[in-house]
Specification:
Blueprint: E1 31-33, E2 42-44, E3 50-51, E4 55-60, E5 65-72, E6 75-82, E7 85-92, E8 98-100, E9 107-114, E10 117-123, E11 130-136, E12 145-146, E13 155-161, E14 164-170, E15 178-184, E16 193-194, E17 203-210, E18 216-223, E19 230-235, E20 245-247, E21 255-260, E22 264-269, E23 276-281, E24 288-290, E25 299-306, E26 309-315, E27 323-328, E28 333-336, E29 346-352, E30 357-365, E31 373-381, E32 391-394, E33 401-402, E34 407-415, E35 429-436, E36 459-461, E37 466-472, E38 479-487, E39 493-500
Parallel strand pairs: 1-20, 2-24, 3-28, 33-39
Antiparallel strand pairs: 4-31, 5-6, 6-7, 7-8, 9-10, 10-11, 11-12, 13-14, 14-15, 15-16, 17-18, 18-19, 19-20, 21-22, 22-23, 23-24, 25-26, 26-27, 27-28, 29-30, 30-31, 32-34, 34-37, 35-38, 36-37, 38-39
Length: 501
């Protein structure tokens, strides 16, 4: 059965995480609360789920408990528990390569993965330390390194995106009160920075998640008994400074288990009764609820997101076992990934490539010993993208500020993942909004100076082999802003950051 308690105890195979804190640094002094409640949400009903043709296979089996899988690209990691021993296993689903992170007899668990880097918690057998470690599977000779060392710190539940690792740190001697902090695997010896500063105040900041590029961190802030949970988010600006932490939800229900792809935050909430999947933009706007009318009263939880696709676990009414589903909000398509009512499939993780190659991993009971799981995976082709997958290649210095009231010439090219220029006069860019990075949306329109960009569209410049939007900063307050835009008819929203002083 899907538990509404977000705490994880290794071996239970139920929920995603919780953890605690012993502070190393505090950087954020301002809090923005966005009271986004149930009445403002819009329902999205995709209709009956569509079967998805896929292949599946076990990844990690055998004696002991294989649990807590995580996935980046084709690299999956998990915790392998045997008696009092535990270690981190990994496998490349594309090449078939497998291995274990060397642990010298220490107890390793709670992994996260991004690219070739694995982060995890290590409980040293010769001390009470609960440290975070990093291991690069392509550089095994380097060995395991401690991340952001701090004597006496007790850390757990690391999540990684880009080079950013967010984790939970216990407060003092408490086993329930915690903060969320971040470290950088590119500079493993640098001290951690805490994004919350609740300390010993009866608060548990838990379940951190990081966007794939490492610029966005989201988490749930709860009471220490796991109730009163709301979702929070913070972003890092172009200069590398973490901004203002923002409260996204303020409902009477429990909002838990957030995840983000850097564009939206998705989470599970029982604000409407039973647990459903919800999501909204990073500034707290455009809140939506996934309403599945094919089986009213079902329970949906543990969402994960990659490139706008949300995977989650669902229990149908009367069932205690979960199956896996996939929802793509832009197309409003629901896929049922597994149809095994006699098997409980949980702890899902998702990977989706630019060419729509989907991979999902999860834990399920091994059928041999109660409480023991194996790791399984499936892969499918969601179909060729409707068009090229664009990225914004900036042609201006986003670290330099524009004086308030001046014109900010925002120039860019549309590139693919390799940086190849895809800009063309035939490809149009339309303004989708102007938003302050701390979550305060302005009512001012994205006006171009001198009407250089009519109809809120970017102008193609042959000399740049790219685009320009001459943005008037008149009326904009000091801070970091984003000019958001869409490409052609695609629903994907891109953003251009700029500072006003």
């Amino acid at each position: 059965m899907i538990s509404v308690d977000t705490a994880v105890r290794i071996g239970t195979g139920r929920s995603r995480g919780t953890g605690w804190r012993a502070r190393s640094a505090v950087v954020l002094g301002v809090v923005v609360a966005l009271s986004v409640g149930l009445p403002s949400a819009s329902a999205q009903d995709p209709g009956a789920p569509v079967p998805l043709e896929s292949d599946a296979a076990p990844v990690a089996t055998g004696p002991g408990n294989q649990t807590d899988p995580h996935l980046s690209g084709s690299l999956v990691t998990w915790t392998d528990i045997s008696g009092t021993e535990s270690r981190i296993g990994y496998a490349d689903l594309a090449t078939g390569t497998t291995g274990y992170v060397p642990n010298a007899g220490h107890r390793d668990s709670l992994s996260g993965v991004e690219g070739d880097r694995i982060v995890f918690r290590r409980v040293f057998t010769d001390s009470s330390a609960r440290s975070l470690m990093v291991f690069d599977v392509t550089a095994p000779a380097v060995g395991v390194q401690e991340l952001a060392p701090e004597p006496g710190a007790r850390r757990a539940f690391p999540a990684i995106g880009g080079s950013t690792v967010a984790f939970m740190q216990f407060s003092g001697a408490s086993s329930t009160e915690s903060d969320v902090c971040v470290a950088d695997v590119a500079v493993p010896t640098a001290p951690a920075v805490c994004l919350t500063d609740d300390g010993l105040s009866g608060v548990s900041n838990r379940d951190p998640a990081v966007s794939p590029d490492g610029s966005t961190v989201t988490w749930a802030k709860c009471q220490t008994d796991g109730t009163g949970c709301d979702i929070w988010v913070v972003r890092r600006d172009a200069a590398g400074t973490w901004g203002v932490r923002t409260q996204l939800t303020d409902s009477t229900g429990e909002d838990i288990l957030p995840a983000t792809d850097g564009q939206i935050v998705t989470y599970a909430s029982n604000a409407a009764g039973d647990y459903d999947i919800w999501w909204e933009d990073l500034d707290g706007t455009n809140e939506r609820q996934l309403v599945l009318t094919d089986a009213p009263g079902s329970i949906e939880t543990n969402p994960n997101i990659e490139r706008g696709a949300i995977s989650f676990e669902r229990e149908l009414p009367g069932d205690t076992n979960a199956d896996l589903y996939l929802h793509r909000p832009a197309a409003n398509v629901l896929n049922r990934l597994t149809t095994t009512p006699d098997v409980d499939e949980t702890l899902n993780a998702i990977s989706l490539t630019a060419t729509d190659e989907l991979r999902i991993v999860w834990a399920q009971p091994d059928g041999l010993f109660p409480g023991h799981n194996d790791i399984h995976a499936l892969w499918a082709d969601l179909g060729a993208p409707a068009g090229p997958v664009y990225q914004a290649c900036l042609l201006y210095d986003a670290t330099k500020a524009h004086r308030a009231g001046s014109t900010a010439p925002l120039k860019l090219r549309l590139c693919d993942a390799s940086g190849v220029n895809l800009s063309s006069p035939e490809v149009t860019l339309a303004v989708a909004g102007l938003v302050k990075r701390d979550g305060s949306a302005t009512t001012a329109l994205a006006d171009s100076a001198g009407n250089a960009n009519p109809d809120s569209a970017f102008r193609y410049d042959a000399g740049l082999a790219g685009y320009v939007f001459n943005l008037s900063t008149k009326g904009l307050s000091r801070g970091t802003w984003e000019l958001r835009f869409t490409v052609g008819g695609s629903p994907t929203v891109h953003a251009l950051p700029f500072d006003v002083r």
